[in-house]
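Researcher: Batch entry, complex prediction.
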Amino acid sequence: MNRLWIIFAGFMITFTTAWIGLAMLPSAHYRGPEWGAQLGENDLLVEQGRGVFIQNGCVYCHSQQVTARNFRSDQDRGWGARRTVASDYRNDKRGLFGTMRTGPDLANIGSRNSSPQWHYLHLYDPQITSKGSVMPPMRFLFDRHKAGASGSTEALPLGDGDEIVPKPEARALVAYLLSRKHDVGEPPEAFEPPATQ
Amino acid sequence: MNDSRPAQGDPAAIEASRTQRVEIDLSLRGPTMHWLAVALFWLLLGTFEAMLASHKLTTPEFLAGSPWLTFGRIRQAHLESMVYGWLSAASVPVLLWMLARLCRAPLRHGWTLHVSAVLWNVGNLIGGFGIIAGYGTSMEWLEYPPVAAPFLLAGFAIVLWHGVDMLRRRAPGHIYVSQWYLFAALIWFPLLYLTAQTLLFWKPVAAIAQGPVNWWYAHNVLGLWFTPVGLASAYYLIPKVIGRPIHSYYLSAVGFWTLAFFYSWNGMHHLVGGPYPAWLVSTSIAASVMMVVPVVTVAVNHHMTMVGHFSALRWSPTLRFVVFGAMSYTLVSLQGSLTAVRAVQRVVHFTHYTVAHAHLGMYAFATMIMFGSIYYMVPRVIGREWPSARLIRVHFWASAIGITLYFVALTVGGIEQGLNLQNAEMPFLEVVRRTIPYLHLRTFSGILLSIGHFAFAISLVRVLIGKTRPAGEPTLLAVRHPVTA
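Model: Structure tokens for the complex:
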């Protein structure tokens, strides 16, 4: 072949069809007022928490999607009462679906464990709540004092005479985690194949 | 091919062709040194980040006090250092050099390529620093804060302009398959990057649509940027080193067009099981399986070219790296076709298996071919010989054994992890605990890869600063025997 423009036209056609099919069609499909993040005033802290989640790369170990029963054991592990569907994410700003489960899925962590104290301790040192975890401790999200020294109502005793006080970033992150309740609302039967294969 | 030798028995024509080739090579000298220095810096930094991240996963207390060095940031920085810092910056000079030779068009206005190297490096520096400082995006393969993108795009625009300029000035006649791949890669990469930046960051689409856009980009940056450059190198260098033309022109054409058609539809297999329309995922699974066609075509073509000349692997550093890379391409692609199938995804999705697969593509295939290309290109373009065959040997074996161990460890570990995850009776922390031996093996393989990269760095730095002999007698790994075909 010795005509450059034929080669150019050819590889542009293949590229463009896939571009339309995989990038533009989904983008156009999920467009409209119902797909924007509808944020109330109380959600500001959650938004900040999403930022902390993003900046520290939590998604590299924690997915946020519950798969169907006939695909994986997510629901048997208690990660959600049903699989997640597209509309569950309509209030999210950033697609944080994840492709890795070095840690457990977080799509419904707010339903599973609604105790902020547990999350604070877990973030400060995962070994306190989850012995043997490989999660990095997020100590930099906390201040550590002698017990009682901070006078903060949010202080958590560590058991060795010290206490930790969550910084604003930690409070935001935990607010975000507690907001992860993708399995509330109508169970979309139409999307859930039968439990048996 | 364009670059083939003129008819034998015409000494004047042979000499003219040789003179022209030398002139073309030397026109690229300065920019090549600049781009390779940038690439080497990011290779070493990316290796360092990889070692930190790998060790952190088995020893969470390691450097845990600082947000700047937390696992989630280092991992993002590692990926980006390797994708944009190392492999892209290594691909650019190799791409332009091959294009210049195949078009018989010397580089013009070389200073602009220095500008592009600076822009590229600054984009990476801003991006890498941004991630560490907490501005990473957590979008896989697009982790740099969006402010880095204009620098990368501007730098690449200059590269694209040079590529088009060479193609416009090409010598008349047949266009070799490597030129098709290089031309396509030059156009595809900026379109991919611009689309992804626009739809994810500048005018972000709904969160649910970001998954498909993210993986359309992430898979295609391998398939439509690194793969075409890698295959172009294999198509160019294997015939060069062993001194015979590529086996089949028709297979080359089939391989190119089927790759262009199928690879671009592959990305959604990363979303199997996710909250997306079934047609979207199924289309990509089908396209992934169809990748068998271009892959087997290319493999047969390369193998038939090599047949009878495998002894050249004993002495040629270039051939060793390139053939290792080409064979890895076959392996990673066939593995990819298999992995995309839902029955396999049930087990290996969300596990270390995927990380192993990504490294087979980005390292065992693309990076190894770039190493081989650099070993061939540098003495001819920079005019200095590699200082030591031993360093090249260390580089090859440390890299080859290191990546093999890496792949085997995380593939086996990932399958076990997937099976354990499927067993809902097994507590999650027990699943985690059972992956740890494999993660230690990964760190060990990283040490081997680091040794290889240091050997490469010592060689390349000595070439760049002139602490080696001028080009002439090539540095070979063994005594070269005359080829008897």
